Each structure stands twice: as C-alpha cells, then as structure tokens.
Predict the 3D structure of the following.
Amino acid sequence: MNQQLYSKVVKMSQIFNTYVIGQPKLFKFIFMAFAIQSHVLIEGVPGLAKTRAVNLMADLVNAQFNRIQFTPDLLPTDIVGSEVFNVQTGQFYIRQGPIFANVILADEINRAPAKVQSALLEAMQEKQVTIAGKTQKLPDFFVVLATENPIEQEGTFPLSEAQTDRFAAKLIVGYPSLESELKILELQEQRGDSWRVDPIFTPEEFLKLGKMIGAIKVVSELKKYIVRLVDATRRPRNYGLDEIAKYIRLGASPRASIYLMKLGKVEAFLNQRDFVLPDDIKNIAYEVLRHRILLSFEAQADGVNQDEIVRYILEKVSIPNIK
C-alpha cells in the first residue's frame, strides 16, 4: 500500500466533506468512478449537492469539467459536436461538443430522447464519438456522472437496459441528517455557494492510482463468491431463494461481476488493504446490483424493490472464509 498516495486521498476526502456535508457516499462512489475510469448513476431529489459534489471532485483532480443539462429537445450534436463549414477557408472542420472533457455531469439524464442517449452510450462504452462519420477519441481520463430525479417522471425517457448496464454503480442519495443540515446552513453563511480548492491530483496521477488499485489481489474463492452473488439474481432457485424467484424478471449481466470485483478493489484500497475481503464486496453490492435487476409485475404488486432482493441474496449466499 502506497501510504503517500493514500494520504492524498484522505486529504481529498477531508476537503470534499468540508464543502459537501452529510453525503459521504457521494465522495466514495465518485472516487471509485475516477479510480476505475467508469461511470456512476446518481439518483436523488433536487438540492442534495449532487452537482456540487461532481464539480468539486473534478476540481480536486484538476480535471476539465462540463455539465450538460439534458432536456427533451436536446440533439446528439449538442453533446458530441458537429461538422461546420468555414467560409473563409472553404473547408469543413469538427467543432467539438461538451462531451470532450474529463468529467461530464449528465444532469437529469432521463430527460433526453433516444438519439441523444445513443450518442452518450458510444462515449461511455468506447471513449469515442462519431461526428459526420468520423471517429473522435475522448480523453484518456473520461468519466460520466449522471443524475436522475426519482420523483418527476413527466417529460422523461426511461434509460434502456443497455445504457443502464454501462454504469458501474447506481447511488441513491438521501436527505442529510438534522445535524448535517445545520452544518450546511452554517457553511452557507460563511462561504455561500462558492469554494476555492487546490488540486490534490492530476488526471494523469489518477490514472496511475487506478492502475495501482487494479493490482490489488482478489483470491479465487472470492471471485467464485462474486459470481455466485450475480448468478443468484438470475437463477435464485439454485441457491434456495425460492421466495424471491417470482420477483425477478431479469438478473444482472456479467458486467455486474466485473464491477463487483473492480469496485471491491477500490473499497479495499480505501480500507488500506492490498487484498479484497468479502465485506468489501458486500459494501458495494447494492450500488452495483440494484440497477441491473429487472423486477416482475409480482414485485411491483407486492411492493418489493431491488434493494430488498439484494439484501436477501447477501444473507443467503454462502460467504467464503478469507482472512
């Protein structure tokens, strides 16, 4: 374990928690997204510091940040850019859109129509976009943090399963505690909505940190545990989970296994270990699995949600004895 790098992460966390109060999971999962170069879906009602958190984290990594407000009239070219004719030179050139940044906040992502979602899907999966038939590479450090409002559904377009599956994790952000909200008021009086921070990392340093985290050990028995957890969402009866079988229409894809392992490594790093334990996997299981389980009509009728299914699976699937 590189203590110098870990100390920088601790400092990063302390600064984050100074300006975003009462939302420790926001730091954890945005950091995880940065560390494994993947994407996170953040669900929460307005006013819970989601935008502030993403912007602040981008500043702490000295990364180029762009916020894209998704609306029903948005076009793919509004995101990726377009080919423009230069009258003076008589030639076309590519005008890059806001997707060409290190950190993208896709605000209210479910308000954009299918064509826009398709353009974003290519960027998320391939780290490239297509403009006028030409492929344009995105930066090496590229992360999409997308927000959803769980209450307002008018004028929204549900995300496809294919796109949802591209998000490493889905974080549900709740209201802060009374104590935290009091601190928010005090912070507002002292500093208002602004902040000024010095970067802790550069994008290049964070890419190196990600490679170091990727080398954290996951023993064979733990990999088997990960696969069993995911398989239990597909074939629950094979694990004695007959009670929840009727509630699952479709289980999690192999990406769930991949992200349980990858995020498990980041969790181990945050706990100052160079190896992953079953508790690391359990600590991130809800966020990795909840958006990958499609519920049946029986689940909706009985008021059963994905988190209850994940909880039941974690309780029933045998845990390997790893120390």
Observations:
- The chain has two domains: 3-73+99-205, 216-316.
- Residues 3-19 form the longest helix (17 residues).
